[in-house]
Amino acid sequence: MKKSYFQIERLIRIDEQLRNKTYPDNQKLANSLDVDPRTIRRDIEQMRLMGAEIAYDHQKRGYYYVNPNIVFPGMILKGNEVLYFQVAEKILKQYENTPYYHQVKGAVDKILSFVSEEVTNEKFANYFDFQQMPAAPIDQANYLKLEEAIHQEVEVIIRYHSMHRDIISERQVAPYHILNQSGSWYLIGYCHTRKDIRTFSLNRIQEISLTDDYFERPPDFDLQKYLGKSFRIIREGQPYVIQLKFSAYQARWIREKQWHPTQKLTPLADGSLLMELEVAGLSEVKRWILQYGAEVEVLAPPELREEMKKEIDKMKRIYSTV
Is residue 287 domain-resident? Predict the structure, then answer.
């Protein structure tokens, strides 16, 4: 009984023979795939439409790749791999208002357009969804200028709104790195005003212009080392050893995640949980702790414990008037 091949399977087999440089012709391919030579001609034309540079060698009487390094997405995706790409489209929805969304989505759509409907599973892919994280919108034009500056290795002048001090200032910055953290975008670079590497929130950059000043990124600059022991994104002050005691109730959820690279978790006899971590600065970790209310107690350092007491006193004053 002859085997019946779907088109995607035929294209894969034709691709294999062309890569092996066997110089097959229509009849040879038709015989190996149990189809009419006219079907092979249509398959070859389909491959050309997909970007393959396929030529015919009259001396060797067969087809060959002009550029053997071409990769056909539709040929290399099978079964669950197609599902993963369909799910990837949903993952991208989280970043719909961010740079590259349309470019990346377009690339994914193009890959999926080459895949035969016979191997897709759109119904199953619809069982997956990803909720978008809260993110501040950024100016796409500013982002593209920043991207160009990083590519050309030229410094930029930015007009920046500092939320902490609530002032707008002009800075000249050598842009080293763009980082997306928890849905928000940041520029990390050398600030001439501060004479140090600084982190800037992209949505707070009001204006940006490229300069004629070239810069060299320090060869020893490493993003992970720069972020170091920051709790999330802000690098500030000296490192502190933080000790937190979570209630037995809250401990169930805390132990599920890796909240910081330095964290150590120690179960206590009463069911509570001791967390120890080392972070640079206290402001970000304080905001994180506050969300757990009475389910967590700060044991150390004393500076953070005092900060928590002040916050509690402020809240008492607010809610005592209700």
Answer: yes
Give yes or no for a contact between 34 and 27, defined as CB atoms under 8 angstroms apart.
Answer: no
How far lies 129's CA from each of 81, 110, 126, in Å? 17, 21, 7
State both tokens at 68: 């053997």
Rounded distance, CA 235 to CA 186, Å? 13
Tokens found for residue 21:
């440089």
- Measured in degrees and rounded to the nearest 5, phi and psi for residue 199 equal -115, 130
Looking at the 3D structure of the chain, how many domains does it have? Answer: 4
Residue 30 · residue 40 · CB < 8 Å: yes
The string of pLDDT tens digits covering residues 245-287 is 999 999 999 999 999 989 999 999 999 999 999 998 898 899 9
What are the CA-CA distances from residue 116 to residues 6, 61, 144 (Å)?
9, 30, 35
Residue 90 lies in a domain: yes
Six token digits for residue 261: 């690279």
| Whether 316 contacts 294, CB under 8 Å | no
Phi and psi at residue 107, to the nearest 5°: -65, -45
Classify residue 281 by its DSSP letter. Answer: -
Measure CA 218 to chain center.
Answer: 24
Among 227, 256, 274, the domain-final residue is 227
Between CA 173 and CA 179, with CA 174 as vertex, the angle to 5 degrees is 95
For residue 175, the model assigns a pLDDT of 95
Q: Look up the pTM and report it.
A: 0.64
Domain that includes residue 185, residue range: 140-227
Residues 26 and 57 in one domain: yes
Domain harbouring 261, CATH code: 3.30.70
What three-state secondary structure class fits 69?
A: coil
| C-alpha pair distances (Å), 20 with each of 5, 10, 77, 194, 223 | 20, 15, 20, 59, 43
Q: What sign does the CA torsion over 40, 45, 49, 53 have?
A: positive
For residue 272, what are its two tokens?
């509570």
Question: Would you say residue 193 lies in a domain?
Answer: yes
**Rounded to whole angstroms, how far apart are CA atoms 185 and 104?**
17
Specify whether 220 is located in the same domain as 144.
yes
Is the residue at 2 inside a domain?
Answer: no
